[in-house]
Amino acid sequence: MTDRLVDPDPSAAPNMADVVAEPLWQVRLRLFWQGLRSGWSSFAESRIGLVGLGVIVLFGIMAMIQPILIGTVWEPAIYDPVLGYDAVVVEKTIVPDNEVTDPATQIDLFSARLLDPLLQVGDTLVVTVQPAPPSRQHLLGTDPLGRDVLSQLMFSTRAAFMLGIVAALVTVFIATTVGAVSAFFGGAVDTLFMRLADLIILVPFLPILIVLSALIDFQLFHLALLIGVLGGFGGTAIILKSQALSVSVKPFIDAARIAGGGHLHVIFRHIIPNVLPLSFLYMMFSVTDAISAEATLSFLGLLNIDMSWGIMIHQAWDQGYLLDPNRWWLMVPAGMSVTLLAGSFFLVGRAMDEIINPRLRRR
Amino acid sequence: MTQPLVKVEGLRKLYPLHKGVFRKPTEYIHAVDDVSFEIAPGESLGLVGESGCGKTTTGRMLVRLTGASDGQILLQDDGSMIDVAHVDRDGMKRFRRRVQMIFQDPYESMNPRRTIFDTISEPLQVQGIGTVAEREERVAELLEMVGLIPAPTFMFRFPHQLSGGQRQRVAIARALVIDPSFIVADEPTSMLDVGISISIMELMLNLAEEFDVSYLYITHDLAVARYMCDRIAVMYLGKIVEIGPTEELLANPRHPYTRALLSAVPVPDPSSVRPAVEIEGGIAKAVNPPPQCRFIGRCPWVQDICRRRGHPPLEDTGNDHLVSCYVAKESV
Ligand SMILES: Nc1ncnc2c1ncn2[C@@H]1O[C@H](COP(=O)(O)OP(=O)(O)OP(=O)(O)O)[C@@H](O)[C@H]1O
Ligand SMILES: [Mg+2]
């Protein structure tokens, strides 16, 4: 009889009247909250996860304060990421041809005479520079069109989040449903979805997007949906299906059927809740994929969008400044942002993997 | 005799050995082969046999988790017998209220993400019985009946917070929550410690009386079947080889296989001498079995008649005791 009641602290037990008095939704909310808290405490043990999350939060703050800055301290005509313009004026000394040692303060005679043929060596000349190097007004300088790089960077963060999250939600929604349905019904439905997934994996992602972008006028939102759909019917569906399959042979599925549960009950109440943790994990990885894909496509100039990290790099390249160490502010901030944000979602995913996947757990 | 609660006739389940896409399978595992029995209301039948003899398959067909290849399962419902294989939607709904199952593995038979309340009330919930408050009351009542006291402390826990024995009590509560008349229990205690499994069996017996429910109790242990059941059916490779009232069958085992099983059970009284039967070899799979007696390969009593004729029919030897053996029948 040892298994009868082994409650550690019976005095803490609520009595029957309390249980019936507390509405069920309230109990469920409390349990949900407890689940979140215990999930968080295991997540917090992972250093890489916390680092990743910290970086994501920083980018989140950046994305949120850009519109606030535009409305307050930043003059829209100057700081607008797309339409802004600021002629940064610099005084330069004219030096003989081929003797320029500091291009920020010196200009050679030949170039100076293109502006004014009467100039001599030793004269000073007031010129507007684009791209301008970092300064008090423009902490990360300006781009070849005289626009503020920091403002562009922050503005693009919002686009990156939007893209990543929409793509990931679409991916995971489709992949979870396809996986659960395939695993549960098997047969022709399963074969159809799995061959489709093989096909999507087989045909490489980027070339498809390049071809499609030639046919369709691609906006960011379309790209997010497309990445989501391709990811959702592709590899993620196969992974989530194998998880769903291992759930659907468990005796509790039989128990649910004996209880009288129909297909929908079994799929949505039993299979999907047990696949969701893994779905959530793959959501993190799809954010990473989406952000990288956008950067690549924008860099190749295939997207019709005003501003994004990829567009910023594209413009640096377009104007011939891509690997110019003297114009580092055109390339480094955007490139770093892509890498950091995509990498952070990946790190968070890895940390979640350790929680969800017991084999990877150190304890 | 009163109308039986469950009547099984000629039940058969064949599994194709190779699942080819293009070829029609030619070899079948005869997991359950021409099985017939009846269970009276309130009576419990034990289904005993070695691993792989088709006990689980039989049980799963009775609760319609697996379709039968052949044969009939009839269930008494309000005085009339309904054919379980051919019920409409409405009939299926009624069937799900009358028949439940308790599984072997207490760790895998509950969804780890649902609370004990959700697990037990699932039949009520999916069949739309009662309001939420009524379900809570009912679940609390059942938790107390299965000995999980005080009920409120267990209601909103998750399965992983309970021990194996406690979970099996939850499984019993789930099976009883809609007041069924028939429960298939598939080795419900085989994964528990001895002490706990005895308390679970005791509980199941008490509740059977209280709820007026019949069990098909599947076990490989004759001692367990003796404790739990009014009658015992011994299965061998998909066939029932002997069936009869518990005490009668154990006192006068007729089939050589039953005798062999009995000689494997420890005897409480060392002075009692039992006719020991030695059988050799392990159980095989019944893949396209020859027409002769299934036991012929391991039987110590084989005679000419066994080789000449088909699998022996179950024949009454008196006292409601049936055996399927040419030799045993003659020795009566
Ligand atoms: N889904 C299936 N597909 C193919 N063969 C199966 C399937 N289920 C059971 N079998 C076969 O049917 C036979 C009977 O299996 P069953 O599980 O009913 O045996 P059992 O008596 O319950 O054994 P155990 O004591 O090990 O639980 C076995 O040979 C098994 O391999
Ligand atoms: Mg079994």
Explain how this protein is built.
- The complex is a heterodimer of chains A (363) and B (332).
- Chain A has 363 residues and is mostly helical.
- Chain A folds into two domains: 47-70 and 146-356, MetI-like (MetI-like fold, Orthogonal Bundle), CATH 1.10.3720; 89-128, no CATH class.
- Chain A is 66% helix and 5% strand.
- Chain A has 14 helices and three strands.
- The longest helix of chain A has 37 residues, at 149-185.
- The model of chain A is unreliable at 1-13 (pLDDT under 50).
- With 332 residues, chain B is of the alpha/beta class.
- Helix content of chain B is 33%, strand content 21%.
- Chain B is built from twelve helices and twelve strands.
- In chain B, a hairpin with a 2-residue loop joins strand 4 and strand 5.
- Chain B starts with 5 loop residues before the first strand and ends with a helix.
- The model of chain B has no long low-confidence stretch (mean pLDDT 88).
- The structure holds adenosine-5'-triphosphate and magnesium ion.
- Magnesium ion is lined by residues 55-56, 186 of chain B.
Spatial arrangement of strands, main beta sheet of chain B? 6-7-8-3-9-10-12-11
Q: Give the bound compounds.
A: adenosine-5'-triphosphate, magnesium ion
Count of domain modules of chain B: 1
CATH superfamily of the largest domain in chain A: MetI-like
Descriptors:
A: MetI-like fold; three-stranded mixed β-sheet; 3 strands; B: 332 residues; alpha/beta; Rossmann fold; eight-stranded mixed β-sheet; four-stranded antiparallel β-sheet; 21% strand; globular; binds adenosine-5'-triphosphate; binds magnesium ion
Structure in a nutshell:
The complex is a heterodimer of chains A (363) and B (332). With 363 residues, chain A is mainly alpha-helical.
Topology:
The complex is a heterodimer of chains A (363) and B (332).
Chain A: H1 16-21, H2 24-43, H3 47-71, H4 76-79, E1 88-95, E2 106-108, H5 109-115, E3 124-129, H6 149-185, H7 187-202, H8 205-215, H9 220-233, H10 235-248, H11 251-258, H12 263-299, H13 309-318, H14 328-356
Parallel strand pairs in A: 1-2
Antiparallel strand pairs in A: 1-3
Helix pairs in contact in A: 3-6, 3-14, 6-7, 6-9, 6-10, 6-12, 6-14, 9-12, 10-12, 11-12, 12-13, 12-14, 13-14
Chain B: E1 6-16, E2 28-39, E3 45-48, H1 55-62, E4 70-77, E5 80-83, H2 89-98, E6 99-102, H3 116-126, H4 132-145, H5 151-155, H6 164-176, E7 182-186, H7 194-211, E8 214-219, H8 222-228, E9 231-236, E10 239-245, H9 246-251, H10 256-263, H11 304-308, E11 315-316, E12 322-323, H12 326-330
Parallel strand pairs in B: 3-8, 3-9, 6-7, 7-8
Antiparallel strand pairs in B: 1-2, 1-4, 4-5, 9-10, 10-12, 11-12
Helix pairs in contact in B: 3-4, 3-6, 4-6, 6-7
The complex binds adenosine-5'-triphosphate and magnesium ion.
